[in-house]
Amino acid sequence: MQELPQSDDFKSIVLNNTPLIDVRAPIEFNKGAFKNCVNLPLMNDEERHLVGIKYKEHGNVEAIKLGHKLVKDEIKESRVKAWCDYKMQHPNALLYCFRGGQRSKISQEWMRESKIDITRLRGGYKAFRSYLMREIEESPKHFKPIIIGGRTGSGKTILLKDIKNSIDLEGLANHRGSSFGRKITPQPTQINFENALAYDLIQKLDYGFKELYFEDEGKYVGGVCIPKEFAEYLSSAPLIILETPESQRIEITFDEYVVQAQTSYKSHFEKNALQEWAKDIGEAMKRINRRLGLERYKVVCELFEDALNEQMKNNSLNLYKTWVKYLLNEYYDPMYDYQIEKNASRIVFRGNSEEILSYVKEKSSGI
Q: For residues 312 and 317, what is the distance between their CA atoms, to the nearest angstrom?
């Protein structure tokens, strides 16, 4: 039989955002996969489990026999059709399984029987994943990081979107990076976060950027962790401080924590969206109870309850701004002041959004 095509040009896949067909079982896919991929499994979770048992007890030949017995006739036909349909819609799509071995090769062969040719990843998921992690580890050799810091609500994420040579770690993590930063949609798995970070780094560095801008983060963004050595590299980087008036910070935080959040909950919950949002805010306030102390925790809860009651009674959101102001003044700002005092020696510039953008443009003019 003619040798089926393989490729390990992983950099090209990243730079071209190449569509990928992942033929692993859903349980594998859900633990981690790549950007621009779709899960169209050769075997479902139960079939994979049964074949795995057969492999352990009777070896590879018997496992393959069982696999062909489980995936045949209408089942086989529907799965091949799904692969072929996707390839027709995405002509440059590639295919992979875990190690680039039997499952992806069988999928290739069945697609060829249907007159559709596709290339599989040499080494499969494991090889591509290793490539991406290696790129993260080696990336500090190729760029200088600059960190955007500032008080909560100062608009750091908004500013970052206006800097083309930036990487939005909060966006990749689907989290606002604070105690109240959880979104209604789940965060990616740790693996998916790392894979997305690698894609962003590879694409930005290939463009030729020698400096990359990041928002000031800790080791964790919500429940995902920035790779250790990469996080350490960022932790000593030069720091730019975004200075924003308190009134504007209140508006930005109010828009994120209340307006945008409630809109998101309404789109997610058919009923009781406001109650679900309020419950999650209550849980977030409990998480900061110890740092606030009993008296301030009591005040912040009362302010929130007053605002919630006002909304339910008069459909007005204005009282939430009082709650936001208290959170900023009594919780976030003291933490910020402590951190900025510790890192004062790293500060290279302070200014508002326009001044920082001018500073960045001047530094980047040689790119």
A: 9
Annotated active-site residue 225? The verdict is no
CA-based max dimension of the chain: 77
Tell me the per-residue pLDDT of 10-54, one tens digit each, with 9 for 90 and over: 999 999 999 999 999 999 999 999 999 999 999 999 999 999 999
- Res 314 pLDDT > 60: yes
154-206 pLDDT, tens digit each: 999 999 999 999 999 999 999 987 778 788 889 999 999 999 999 999 999 99
Q: What is the 3-state secondary structure (H, E, C) of 95-128?
A: EECCCCCHHHHHHHHHHHHCCCCCEEECCHHHHH
Q: Which amino acid is at 22?
A: D
The residues of the chain that CATH labels 3.40.50 are 142-364
Instruction: Given the residues 37, 84, 97, 301, select the one marked as catalytic.
Output: 97
CATH of domain 142-364: 3.40.50
Contact of 282 with 198, CB cutoff 8 Å: no
Angle between helices 273-287 and 261-268 (to 10 degrees): 130
Confidence of residue 341 (pLDDT cuts 50, 70, 90): confident
Between the alpha carbon of residue 356 and those of residues 56, 299, 341, 348, the distances in Å are: 60, 36, 21, 11
Q: What angle do CA 281, 283, 284 make, to 5 degrees?
A: 65
* Centroid of chain to Cα 44: 26
Residue pointed to by tokens 């989290």: 175
**Residue 71, class by beta-carbon neighbours within 10 Å (0-12 exposed, 13-18 middle, 19+ buried)?**
buried
CA distance linking residue 37 with residue 94, whole number of Å: 9
Q: For the segment 202-252, what is each residue's pLDDT rounded down to a tens digit?
A: 999 999 999 999 999 989 998 999 999 999 999 999 999 999 999 999 999
Residue 200: CB atoms within 10 Å: 19
Q: What pLDDT does residue 1 have?
A: 47
CATH topology of domain 6-133: Oxidized Rhodanese; domain 1 (3.40.250)
